[in-house]
Amino acid sequence: MQHFKTLSEYLEYLELPPSEHPMISVFSSGDDGFMPCPKESSPPITNDCYSISFKKFVKGDLTYGRTQYDFANGTLFFIAPRQVMQWDKSVVFEQKGFSINFHKDFLKGTELAHQIKKYGFFSYSVNEALHLSPKEEKQIKALVESIELEYQNNQDEFSKEIIISQLSTLLKYANRFYQRQFINRKEMSTDLLEQFNKKLESYFDSGQLKENGIPSIEQIAGQLSVSQRYLSDTLKKETGKTSTEHLQLFLIDEAKNILMEPHKAVSEVAYDLGFEYPAYFSRLFKKREGVSPKEYREKYRMN
């Protein structure tokens, strides 16, 4: 797989114009112009840059989670360094919008270098992009215009600080808008939790927990056609618990049922649920229930 270490190498590969700065590029169509178009297709590639781009859908198949989405509104995409990218000619976007690419080293020594890692949407996949309302689109465009203005100016000692400050503000707005998107898609969020639990139930009923161990969140998310980070963020927003917490709750609930089998040792219960180490199972059970598996069994028998 081809990897691009510098921004200039990456832009050259995309067949885009060189940037005004070795660490950051800003392409914008403005109100009347058109953005330069990158190459039509590419095999899997990676690079060391962050990308933020806004485009409007023309044709092709894109889905949001497991459902089709109305792409009449603009779509904001976020890509982190080392993420694998691949595209072909089937999806077509308008030549209007913007694209900001900046090398990860551009943030070195700044607060944003730490803050940007907390934004989960850089780990989302394309079908979990941010779909802006007209009002939100207007706010984002205003920020990009300010970034582009500073980018086009003659660089001085204040340029980097100003651009990074504006980038930070843009990402904060994006975070707010994603929260709105989670709320607006409450029905989908509930369905996602139901599907998550069904996958676990099927995994348990088929005996795979005992044979193959506890599935990873990434594995379950892949079966649900969403990214690991998006699954956790959506469930956290909807239920107050992350995907890992929901997985643990499922295991504890199943453990309670199995513990009622009088002749089964606690270690056997742990192995039935896919735990490699019974001691870890006992610690998790006590953390969640306030009593050990053995104490829980004795308490239940007394009742």
TrEMBL record:
Where does the HTH araC/xylS-type domain start and stop, copy by copy?
198-299
Q: Annotated Gene Ontology MF terms?
A: DNA-binding transcription factor activity; sequence-specific DNA binding
Question: What SUPFAM superfamilies does the entry give?
Answer: Homeodomain-like
Q: Which Gene3D superfamilies match?
A: Homeodomain-like
Q: Which UniProt keywords apply?
A: DNA-binding, Transcription, Transcription regulation
One Pfam assignment: HTH_18
Instruction: Write the protein's name.
Output: Helix-turn-helix protein
Organism listed in the record? Algoriphagus chordae
